[in-house]
Amino acid sequence: MHFDKISKIKGELKLPGDKSISHRAVIFSSIAQGKSVITNLSNGEDVKSTINCFEQLGVDIKNDAGRLIVEGKGLNSLSQPKAPLDSGNSGTTARLISGILIHQKFRTTLIGDDSLSLRPMKRIITPLNLMGGKIEASGNLTLPLKFSTSENLVPINYELPIASAQIKSAVLLSGLHLNSDTTVVENIPSRNHTEAMLGLPIKTDNSKKIITINSSFTPQVKEYFIPSDISTAAFFIVLTLLSKNSELLIKNVTLNHTRTGILEVLRIMGGSIETVALHDAYGEPYGDILIKSSRLQNIKIDKNIVPNIIDEIPILAVAGAFADGGSLTEHAAELRAKETDRIKAICYNLTQAGLRVDEFEDGFKFSGKLKNKKFGLKSFGDHRIAMSGAVLSMLNNSGGEVEDFECVNISNPQFLKQLKNIIRS
Ligand code: S3P
Q1: How far is the C-alpha of 199 from the C-alpha of 425, rounded, in Å?
Q2: Is the pTM of this model over 0.90?
């Protein structure tokens, strides 16, 4: 896909619902007893994978004029799927649903696409095995996963070895099925949608966060409005900041504090980003974001904020390429376990753009000047690398080409249409 240099950005955007919140709204509605209604759900392929899995497990899910109606089966009435459950490209689907599948009275197999089949599953197999779950994985502890029935499931007190909302959520979803309390201890904060949306009790002990899922807890039916995805908004935010004479208002974006690190970092870099019209729904805050052209300066990023901005590091690297000073990203080894090895992908594309780039195990650094030629970039089949490549190209005088661009459908199938509405000559 070819992208020309753009002149400026002006206007207002409404974006689809946040992917992480959408997955959880579908999952929690499916295991609540009765009807839930979800509006502004993410329309990406990843959330479709979650919907397909729960339909295969016997949940009745319908689209009614843009609203998703989920007739939840309650915790113990899912039915045996006729074929393996397919998580597609979605790590969140595979890891969260595993916490539910170990409790079923039937066997299931969980599969995914080529990218997901390479991603690490040991991180959820270990705690779910400790709870008595019977999971057989393929050689490298990757998908496909085979779940057998187990009579001896027990609660655990689990300290997360890495900051991961997917591991935390798998353990909490498993704990939801048990007769005594399960706790998860978190040392470095990860996104908190599971505990916030379920309203779970939280304690803090020094800098540790302790989340308990109480034995008497049952998920409730709800009306969910899904705030727009801040990780999707991030591409438009960076594009607006770095384009001259530009101003953009993005409506109803999630402002959950475990996700707004991208705004904090860009503001410290000098970005003009205001949040206005704040609201709250079922524990999830959201509001409008007003962005204006700004001159950016690279900064040192604090280690503890890395999990908060982990999905935005590819687009932050693009911001860094146009900011003053060299750029350094460290403590981000988790980027290698995403839809592609994002450290390798970022380094490849920035090198293609003419920068001097050094790759390390947990990050990268770069400096130098962008070349004044058309960039030839790759998506590596990863939606966030593809959209970062598009923004990098639209800010380059000679534009650029991004190979395999269609993977944007994973999180934002309307990306090109949204761009068209806000680009001005
Ligand atoms: C997600 C958690 C994060 C994030 C992913 C979505 C979630 O992954 O990168 O895109 O919805 O729980 P980890 O849990 O592996 O950090």
Answers
A1: 47
A2: yes
pLDDT in tens, 329-378: 999 999 999 999 999 999 999 999 999 999 999 999 999 999 999 999 99
What fold is seen in the domain 19-213? UDP-n-acetylglucosamine1-carboxyvinyl-transferase; Chain (3.65.10)
Q: Return the best residue to mutate from 98, 169, 191 for the ligand 1 pocket (most ligand atoms within 8 A of CB).
A: 191
The number of beta carbons lying within 10 Å of the beta carbon of residue 406 is 12
Match domain 2-16+227-424 to its CATH number in 3.40.50.150, 3.30.830.10, 3.40.50.11190, 3.65.10.10: 3.65.10.10
More confident of the two residues 215 and 260 = 260
Q: Select which of 86, 229, 288, 311 is catalytic.
A: 311
Q: Contact 422/6 with Cβ under 8 angstroms?
A: no
From ligand 1's centre to the CA of 196, what distance in Å?
A: 15
Residue 311 annotated in active site: yes
Taking only the tens place, the pLDDT of each residue in 37-89 is: 999 999 999 999 999 999 999 999 999 999 999 999 999 999 999 999 999 99
Q: What is the C-alpha to C-alpha distance for residues 407 and 393, in angstroms, rounded to an integer?
A: 17
